[in-house]
Design brief:
This protein is an alpha/beta fold. The protein is 38% helix and 13% strand.
Length: 425
Amino acid sequence: MAAAPSVLPATSPAPARAIPDSFSASLKAWWTSGEKESAIAEERLLRRLPYFLPKGTPTPSPPPPVTARVEHVALDDKKKFINTVSFIPGQPAPEGRAPPPAVVLHGYGAGLGFYFSNFETFGSWSARRGAPVYMLDWLGMGRSARVPFTVKAKKSDIDSRVTQAESFFIDSLEQWREKMGLNKMTLIGHSLGGYLSVAYALRYPTRVSRIILLSPAGIPRGPDDSSVPAEELDSAPHGSGAAHPASQDEAKQLEKEQRRTARNQGFVRRVGTYLWEEGYSPFQVVRTAGFWGPMLVGRYTSRRFTGLTEEETRDMHEYILNITVARGSGEYCISHILAPGAYARRPMVDRISVLNVPITFVYGDHDWMDPMGGTESVKALKAAGNRDAKMYIIPNAGHHVYLDNPKAVNDLIVKELDKSVPRDS
């Protein structure tokens, strides 16, 4: 796509502050964190796009190939809204020739800003195909409404707990779809967002045209010795290399390495299992740490996002910090949906075969999500008659495949999205 004309106003948000590495810096970051700062941090990521239009900015005439805007889409309950970034093509494809819009969904405790390395790819695809792309923050996460999350089922009633927890997100996504006037969607979900994409498709199969799952959570059946989630097998790499179809041997080898890592957790594993079952959120640690919280987040971002530039790491730190210290909400779903070890209480491998839409599984070669769940799901789908199910491995990537090797993931996503384009286009 040709470079879009700049539509930004002359001023931009101030540069992100340095990652706190001292008490005074951490205290300052904690004192100034909040909703206003989270909006600024998100906009700082979006302003990497020359066609991003801040709130109140009119669309230029003639319109550029694509524009990007952020808004809060109100749901049926006035207290609920979904934070949404919309990529809108300047020239929509004629009726009947446009592919379904793509809807991008983040993982547990994250937000749409995590996809900043993929913004340009989605914008380019939107302009080229004349179809919109939407990025959402799940209700109760990111910059969406932080409403109370409750599950009324008894702890022993697993099915009801899972259903109620899933409904918190699925119902809000369905309301959002209705408010946006969409008929069908291609869902692109990472981690928990992948799990919830499948859960949504199971409940509303006629509203989904295709599913792309990036390191999805909750797919395989759990082992008997469930443990707290392991970290990625090594410090997450950041590199290049194209996606390739996953082999059975490759998936099994990755699974063996994951189990070996989990067995070495010892005491941390037992404590983590207890806290998980009691419904504690890992983000409570940051909130209760007070002015030490920014330093904790800083250590995570500095260690985890080693492949990013210094500026990108600072921007991600500011963004993650501000969405983390916001009031806890949707994050409390985790112990109801997943058992310790991040294995689903109702595994998708046992539920997914009824879907008859194209489904693509994507894992990093250093992922901690069990790829055998994807392998078994593809087999189950094909056995049920769904021939358009497949799985890919992304080289030099961990759980955040879209950040660790963005080019390979971007190329694969575009390839899959293009398959939704009507044949006569």
